Amino acid sequence: MKKTVLILTLLFALLLTGCGSQKGEPAPNEKLKPEKQVEETQEEAQAKPTKNREPVSMKNTLFIGDSRGVGICEYGGLDEVDFFTSVGMSVYNVFDDVVSVPNVGKIALEELLKAKSYDKVYIMLGINEIGYQAEEILKRYSNLLETIKETQPDAKIFVHGNLHVTKERSQSDKIINNPAINRLNASLEKYADNNRIFYLDINSLFDDNEGNLDPEKTSDNVHVYAKYYIDWANWLVEETTAKLSEADN
Fold it and tell me: Helix/strand/coil (H, E, C) string of the chain?
């Protein structure tokens, strides 16, 4: 009987040894825990930059634009931004117009660029130029960019794509239509080097599922309702933050 008990005890001890790890290798159920923890840590690390990324400051920022820019100025809540904007502004008159800039006064663009130092400059022009020769539009746009680069050597420049019009307007207008807007936007996007000059496409925010301005967000088929300019302004901050973060990486 004692011999039988001894044999059973030895067999049991051997079984326990077989369930353990060999040469320091963890048992299978022990392996799962650290791998899972590493996976979660990687996910957290990937999410951390997005969650903790501070929105860029809009201080020391200049916005140059047409009537859409006027809408952002009046309804976007970006009180720290200097808005050199007016209805009908284009690359053809941007250096000729004298604009009343809030907290600055009436001033011409070149005078403003020489008088103040900006960290960021946004340009939203193009809708009023459609219909003119593309080569001439881009020549004048390039001149505007060069002037900004020379007078604001430390500023990041954001070329803002033009907002689409509604399908109704696009199909009924031989000049201002979405195919023409897309062609111009594609040309403007080429200025971006994603280092100093960046391109922003607002149409992802306001388009319908066919690539036209959503008719429920406009009353005139061209401009969004006033209540949407705050969304536009918030989008600008988010996109700027993302673009600059990508450039830093």
Answer: CHHHHHHHHHHHHHHHHHHCCCCCCCCHHHHHHHHHHHHHHHHHHHHHHHHHCCCCCCCCEEEEECHHHHHHHHHCCCCCEEEEECCCCCCCCCCCCEEEECCCEEEEHHHHHHHCCCCEEEEECCCCCECECHHHHHHHHHHHHHHHHHHCCCCEEEEECCCCCCHHHHHHCCCCCHHHHHHHHHHHHCCCCCCCEEEECCHHHHECCCCCECHHHECCCCCECHHHHHHHHHHHHHHHHHHHHHHHC
